[in-house]
């Protein structure tokens, strides 16, 4: 299986590619894509890295699993392709964006403009079988993406990690809170949001406030 991943990342995480677990993972993914409908398209599996280079990373948002319905997943967590109906979690992300920064609710659910500004939109598991949520979990992806988080932690400083929900918060153990900024809240899913754990967290304005303090350019959260 070809690894279409940006060269800026390869030199930092290439040791993972040679480990037995990763070779087993690639065999599994190749077999799944050959025999079943899987998402995102094979060429987009590593889009999180291809639209946000290692040097550009200043914010990390951690998701769990790609969307598993046809045409949704594009390799960026919480993001969907142009023209695709916004899933419930993305709807709540955009509602909080409007409440927090007054940004008009966007028509497009494609978060690529965020990624291009240095927001790494990283799912813990990068692939999924169609209509079967979690079907590619515990096959090795989590080991790989944990290694990515550790690499960012070790080799960069003042990165802002947005940990939304219980799953993402578990990644806090991989992050040195003295080197980086961790902002935690509930998950934007309807279950969490309707219980009061999401709305009002102001994570977007707080992220920009923190970026100012560490001398970084703000993220333009607007989606044209």
UniProtKB/TrEMBL annotation:
GO terms for molecular function: uracil DNA N-glycosylase activity. CDD domains: UDG-F1-like. It comes from the Bacteria. GO terms for biological process: base-excision repair, AP site formation via deaminated base removal. Pfam families: UDG. Its EC number is 3.2.2.27. Keywords: Cytoplasm, DNA damage, DNA repair, Glycosidase, Hydrolase. InterPro entries: UDG_fam1 (IPR002043), Ura-DNA_Glyclase_AS (IPR018085), Uracil-DNA_glycosylase-like (IPR005122), Uracil-DNA_glycosylase-like_sf (IPR036895). It is found in: Cytoplasm. The active site is at 65 (proton acceptor). GO terms for cellular component: cytoplasm. It catalyses: Hydrolyzes single-stranded DNA or mismatched double-stranded DNA and polynucleotides, releasing free uracil. Residues 50-211 form the Uracil-DNA glycosylase-like domain. SMART domains: UDG, UreE_C. Belongs to the uracil-DNA glycosylase (UDG) superfamily. UNG family. Excises uracil residues from the DNA which can arise as a result of misincorporation of dUMP residues by DNA polymerase or due to deamination of cytosine. This is Uracil-DNA glycosylase. The lineage of its organism: Bacteria, Pseudomonadati, Bacteroidota, Flavobacteriia, Flavobacteriales.
